[in-house]
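Co-fold these.
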Amino acid sequence: MIEQISVPTVAELTAKGEKPDVLFWVGCAGSFDERAQKVTKAFVKILHHVGLKYAILGTEESCTGDPAKRAGNEFLFQMQAMANIATLNAYEISKIVTTCPHCFNTIKNEYPSLGGNYEVIHHTQLLQELIDDGKLTFGEEPFKGRKITYHDSCYLGRANGVYDAPRKILEALDAELVEMKRCRKNGLCCGAGGAQMFKDAEQGNKEINIERTEEAIGTGADIISANCPFCTTMIRDGVKHAEKEDKVEVLDLAELVAQAKDL
Amino acid sequence: MQYIEQLLFVIILGVALYFFVKKIKQIRRNIFLGKDETINDQKAERWKIMTKVALGQSKMVVRPVAGFFHILIYIGFVLINIEVLEILIDGVAGTHRSLSFLGSIYNTAIGFFEILAVLVLIACVVFLARRFIIKIPRFHSPEMKGWATQDATYILVIEIILMVALLKMNAVDQLLQSRGADHYVAAGSFPVSQFLTGFFSSYDTSTLIVFERVFWWFHILGILFFLNYVPYSKHLHIFLAFPNTWYSRLKPAGEFGNMPEITNEVNLMLDPSKADPNMPPPEKFGVNDVTDLSWKNVLDAYSCTECGRCTSACPANITGKKLSPRKVMMDTRDRAEELGKAKDKNGTDYHDGKSLHDLISQEELLACTTCNACVEACPININPVEIIFGMRQYQTLEKSAMPSEWVMMNNNIENNQAPWQFSPTDRANWSKEI
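Predicted complex below.
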């Protein structure tokens, strides 16, 4: 590690009389899950590298309530939502970026009617913006010749129609994007959405993540890229199940960008 | 004799229309068993979606083979029905080919309809083959057993019979025209049925007139039967696809509405100044019966033609789980019909005490990943997820019926601010390790 990055909290900035340009909403997986923490760190390194004025809520952040809502517990969802909105509004937050499409969808679409109105973007959209603006450039064709497939998460793709930003990042990385048959609007779920992440699957003849991972491996790609901590977990489990861990990596787009920049 | 035939025609037409309108009114009432919801924003966008998706069949052609043959039947159905207008006039007025004064336009149209009739015939045969010879899996799911498959088969067979009757009618008609039979004006062009005249040319003129009358009556009786069959059938989509796409959900698919009655309760707890103290405490949370759905959800159910594209795209169904979004829609329609009938019998305020949960099990509801693949796959923008989600809310909020892992998850969110059992004070620990 070349330099120590200290991640500012909104509270710290406020104490100095400052405000972040963008709040990084880390999410529960990004905060606690060991695998997802790597994505969080990669993304923070990128934010630091491009010199964006960002901050996190730190311990003031709390679950958006998405899994509670999808499990049918509207009461708990709204309790969580209103508490978060109170925090965000108190800090006069106007723009939020998140590395989790579930947090992204909930804050963007379900908070406004409860009094939380923010510009919300997913980290792949921010990365694409940085690339388009020339703030993130890749010199030595970092992934040239590497076959990469991309898994559309349901809550970024179908739920919010974001299909191009992630693909443009892969293009900028000079990777060879090999699409799965079920992609974009027809992308197949990893199996974790709708709070399935937190329970066993109902009885069937196959796990959804295995069905999806087989399709991804079938493209011949050696990297499966994703944009969601839950998808990443589900597909990584699928790769383990197929005993391909030594041949196929599952990486978030933020990790690919950080790798390319040697961050 | 002539007048008796006309009188008979008017009576049959009247009876057919009476029963059709009666059933349509019943269906309308059943749709509005669902809760009130005003959907009339963004009108320009709604017309655009209806034009593109229903009229233009844009989502049908996502699967090109089925899409192509469906368009043949669709165009054939719409255009050949222009001829029904003439049949109605002839039937009431006792005329024959009353629109033939249009001259060459008429002749071209009749010829064009014959070609369409053949294309419809081919498409119907292809569809039967897809169901029963190729056996495409989505036509053989458990919910397709019995009536659902019979219904689909009847419709294809009726269409084939109608098209054959049309062509035979024209074949006999042109023979009568060429023999200069009284009443049979020379009109039309017959690019297809000219090859069928050989079957009838040996009969004398009076027998041919009987044939012509039989085919003519068969054709119109077939159409009137079809008209009255459609409201009982999955074929209702030929009408309802249009309103159903007009009333499409325009918000992002990921946005699941927030329940306002809960917002008030939460406000009462967190910030009473924002709460409406006069709002009565809610009687029920979530969806127990069709009466708890939006009327749009019930319209969705009546519009569904059971093609099963939703089910074939559903990740849960693909991996052998019990959930089938198509079954959810079929059950919703069945339940609306059942409750409607019970109300017809016992009065508007009557409720039979049954619920949608009698038809859709918790195992099905719990298998949904809310991925919206079914919504995307539907050629007419039906949304099964809203029904599944509403029913899940009922299970969770009213019955506390959920997997123990979800109970734990909810406890964790309440106590630790995360779905896992981590201490909230450790939330930013990762930031010390960069």
